[in-house]
């Protein structure tokens, strides 16, 4: 066994992180893991200090999401951990590799409900792929390297490691940590033969992409495949960046408020190929798109974890492979396009183009349609868009034409407050790229404190804050179910321009559509983290229907 000599538990944690290639962690400090904080001092690992653990965990999620390597977050016990659970849940539902380290009470105080004590193996099992507690500092390299392997293998997800305070100050000799070994999973030859056969015999095939374990090369290679065979491709909810929307094969977003023409085509397909997607509640329009458990279409399901294959939908062909490994095998496929596919695919792309053309009008003085047109014309195609949850997000999802891999960070769990910490994390990773956070007035205030983190680290993100004075999504459902009875959905807001300035950022107010472009240019030129507050009439609740129309069912 090679050891580095006597080390504290805190030092061993940091050495194991370095051995696994970590260069950055997010955290909110706590007295429960001072020994790790001390080991981070002069370690060369950048420590991003956040203002609330939910935001810190969401930043780690974004790093995991945009790199494929686990994002690392450190928080204190009890209240720190429960705050961080918001980000843990996002990573779980989105299959994102992430490791959350939580300080824990000292070993001899456990199970007494000591100060801020939680037994995380009981509390977080449903939130994480694995929850481990490191009892013996000698086993730190084993636990940490395993955490990397678990977080990234099969269906990726978050891992929680808890660190008893007294274990972290113990001085021990432990094995030198080594980097984890990534686990690939490729489709078999027979499976690819069957796949070829099913595709060759399909008259109305449809590909739906989703999930994680994609790469820039895999996305490019899949685009070549789809365009050369002229098959239609949709992207699952909040996974639009997996396929170039300007490609002649792009059929649209399989998400909330799906284009009815696309939904019809999916239902009438004779072959569905899900690549990395789970086709869960949102993309399946509330589990109505494919029959459960036996879809009427022939189903090929490609997913990196065996347990998911056949869990909801019985596939005719189950391929246990990561999307990038499956796409690698597709590149070897020798087959010709069926001429019947081309016409349908091009009609589907035409329908998508029409569906994704923003409306020019709407209630109030500000029109989101022309604002989206401005963004499309003026924002580079590698710009990264982030958002949380709210009706405002529809404008991005439906009208922004995603072109490239890694230009989107958005939670399929519909977690409000995700967009701002995600933008901070994305800008950290890609300082040269424009990062635009879309938020509602409700969504922004859930993690609005992380605006100071953007300012502190000199990260000039641009937040487009769509302020309609209401928790709009819920108001919309409320008007539909309980017309005219507005309960708990209206909001009183701060002056967001003053908020931006008070935090040391740049603020702009948009009260007329034509103010948006110049405001965006000034925000860009400021070189600071910026908030552009758009005052949107609450009536403009969806691109197609007003609140009044929803209330009156007209
Ligand atoms: C953390 C969290 N809390 C509550 C909800 C329920 N929820 C979904 S959308 C929404 C309102 C969002 O309001 P806002 O950000 O102002 O956007 P708008 O819908 O008005 O455009 C709420 C409360 C949620 N998805 N996530």
Automatic annotation (TrEMBL):
Stored InterPro entries: DHS-like_NAD/FAD-binding_dom (IPR029035), THDP-binding (IPR029061), Thiamin_PyroP_enz_cen_dom (IPR012000), Thiamin_PyroP_enz_TPP-bd_dom (IPR012001), TPP-bd_CS (IPR000399), TPP_enz (IPR045229), TPP_enzyme_TPP-bd (IPR011766)
Stored Gene3D superfamilies: 3.40.50.970, TPP-binding domain (3.40.50.1220)
Limits of the Thiamine pyrophosphate enzyme N-terminal TPP-binding domain: 7-118
A Pfam family the protein falls into: TPP_enzyme_C
PROSITE patterns documented for this protein: TPP_ENZYMES
Domain Thiamine pyrophosphate enzyme central: residue ranges: 193-330
Start and end residues of each Thiamine pyrophosphate enzyme TPP-binding domain: 388-534
Protein keywords: Thiamine pyrophosphate
NCBIfam families named in the record: PRK08199.1
Annotated family: Belongs to the TPP enzyme family.
Protein name as it appears in the record: Thiamine pyrophosphate-binding protein
Native species: Agrobacterium cavarae
């Amino acid at each position: 066994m090679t050891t580095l000599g006597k080390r504290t538990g805190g030092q061993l944690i940091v050495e194991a992180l370095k051995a696994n290639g970590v260069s950055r962690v997010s955290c909110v400090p706590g007295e429960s893991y001072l020994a790790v904080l001390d080991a981070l001092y002069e370690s060369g690992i950048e420590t991003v200090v956040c203002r609330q653990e939910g935001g810190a965990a969401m930043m780690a999620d974004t790093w995991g999401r945009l790199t494929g390597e686990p994002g690392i977050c450190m928080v204190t016990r009890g209240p720190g951990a429960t705050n961080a659970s918001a980000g843990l849940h996002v990573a779980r539902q989105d299959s994102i590799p992430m490791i959350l380290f939580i300080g824990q009470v000292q070993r001899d105080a456990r199970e007494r409900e000591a100060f801020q004590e939680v037994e995380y193996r009981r509390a977080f099992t449903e939130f994480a792929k694995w929850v481990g507690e490191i009892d013996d500092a000698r086993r730190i390299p084993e636990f940490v390297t395993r955490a990397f392997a678990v977080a990234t293998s099969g269906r990726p997800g978050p891992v929680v490691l808890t660190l008893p305070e007294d274990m972290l100050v113990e001085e021990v000799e432990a094995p030198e940590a080594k980097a984890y070994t990534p686990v690939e999973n490729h489709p078999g030859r027979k499976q690819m033969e069957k796949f070829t056969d099913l595709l060759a015999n399909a008259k109305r095939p449809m590909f739906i992409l989703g999930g994680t374990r994609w790469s820039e090369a895999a996305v490019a290679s899949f685009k070549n495949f789809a365009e050369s065979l002229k098959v239609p491709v949709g992207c699952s909810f909040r996974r639009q960046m997996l396929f170039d929307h300007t490609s002649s094969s792009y059929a649209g977003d399989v998400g909330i408020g799906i284009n009815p023409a696309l939904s019809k085509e999916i239902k009438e397909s004779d072959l569905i190929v899900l690549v990395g997607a789970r086709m869960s509640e949102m993309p399946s329009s509330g589990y109505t798109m494919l029959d459960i458990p036996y879809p009427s279409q022939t189903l090929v399901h490609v997913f990196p974890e065996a347990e998911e294959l056949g869990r909801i939908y019985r596939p005719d062909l189950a391929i246990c492979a990561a999307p990038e490994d499956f796409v690698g095998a597709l590149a070897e496929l020798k087959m010709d396009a069926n001429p019947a596919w081309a016409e349908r695919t091009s009609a589907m792309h035409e329908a998508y183009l029409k569906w994704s053309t923003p409306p020019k009008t709407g209630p109030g003085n500000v029109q989101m349609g022309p604002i989206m047109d401005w963004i499309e014309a003026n924002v580079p195609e590698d710009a990264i868009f982030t958002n949380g949850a709210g009706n405002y997000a529809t404008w991005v999802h439906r009208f922004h034409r995603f072109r490239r891999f890694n230009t989107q960070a958005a939670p399929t769990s519909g977690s409000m407050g995700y967009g701002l910490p995600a933008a901070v994390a994305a800008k950290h990773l890609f300082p040269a790229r424009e990062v635009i956070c879309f938020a509602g007035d409700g969504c922004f205030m859930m993690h609005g404190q992380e605006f100071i983190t953007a300012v502190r680290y000199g990260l000039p993100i641009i937040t487009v804050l769509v302020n309609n004075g209401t928790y709009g999504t819920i108001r919309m459902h409320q008007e539909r179910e309980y017309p005219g009875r507005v309960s708990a959905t209206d909001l009183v807001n701060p002056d967001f321009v003053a908020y931006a300035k008070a935090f040391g950022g740049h603020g702009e107010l948009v009260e007329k559509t034509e103010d948006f472009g110049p405001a965006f240019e000034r925000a860009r030129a400021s070189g600071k983290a910026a908030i552009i507050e758009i005052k949107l009439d609450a009536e403009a609740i969806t691109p197609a229907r007003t609140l009044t129309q929803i209330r009156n069912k007209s």
